[in-house]
Specification:
single chain; mainly alpha; Cd81 Antigen, Extracellular Domain, Chain: A; two-stranded antiparallel sheet; 8 helices; 64% helix; elongated; Tetraspanin_EC2_sf
């Protein structure tokens, strides 16, 4: 079995922690914003504004890190995927979720391996079976995709050792497939990110406006001497 650290990436772990922190801060922010607006509490509205600003800045920082560290992330992710492929075992329930996720990627993007199907030749199970089987999620045949996971048998196995060239699988690696998917959906991704940023800016503007209104009302209620 692999140690947990072998399936981890410092950059990916950092990104996960940032997302968890942003999620927790968003929940707290929503509660404080509602409480401050209903009870007209200036300090809570100010805290709501501060939380929104921190989240917006964190999102911008995360986008910059991804953009400038994309090559490092690609290398780290490549190491994780290659290691996963080499030790892929459908009977291993401890890694079932991770393996199912990779099967889903290969099926949906119609790809095989990280850079190509050849990486699957290094899988321990397939190597012991002389590559007479291949990953079902890589297959370009619909009947294999019905299985969705695990390994499928070659219909006409060779007497000797087969290679990935004998498998009925997709030729494209998932790295190229993911990059192509991102390029095709870049407009949607940017649109969603822009929409979220606009909503956060509107929330900041509204919180400031409410604070000013509360301050004005408090000022008018002060008795003149």
């Amino acid at each position: 079995l692999l140690a947990p650290t072998e399936m981890s990436s410092p950059s990916l772990k950092t990104g996960a922690y940032i997302l968890i922190g942003v999620g927790a801060l968003t929940m707290l922010m929503g509660f404080l914003g509602c409480l401050g607006a209903v009870n007209e509490i200036r300090c809570l509205l100010g805290l709501y504004f501060t939380c929104l600003m921190i989240i917006l800045l964190a999102q911008i920082a995360a986008a910059l890190v991804i953009y400038f560290q994309k090559e490092t992330l690609k290398v780290e992710l490549s190491g994780i995927v290659v290691d996963l492929i080499e030790h892929y075992d459908p009977s291993d329930e401890d890694k079932r979720n991770l393996q199912d996720a990779w099967d889903y990627v290969q099926t949906q993007i119609a790809c095989c391996g990280w850079t190509g199907a050849k990486e699957w030749e290094n899988n321990e199970i397939l190597r012991n079976k002389s590559n007479s089987e291949y990953p079902c999620s890589c297959s370009n045949r619909s009947k294999d995709l019905m299985e969705g996971r695990g390994f499928c048998n070659l219909e006409n196995p060779l007497n000797g050792t087969a290679t990935y060239a004998d498998w009925p699988v997709h030729e494209q690696g998932c790295m190229d497939g993911v990059e192509e998917w991102l390029k095709d959906n870049l407009g949607i991704i940017l649109g969603v990110c822009t929409g979220v940023a606009v909503i956060e800016l509107l929330g900041m503007i509204l919180s400031i406006s409410l604070c000013k209104n509360i301050h004005s009302e408090d000022y008018t209620k002060v008795p003149k001497s």
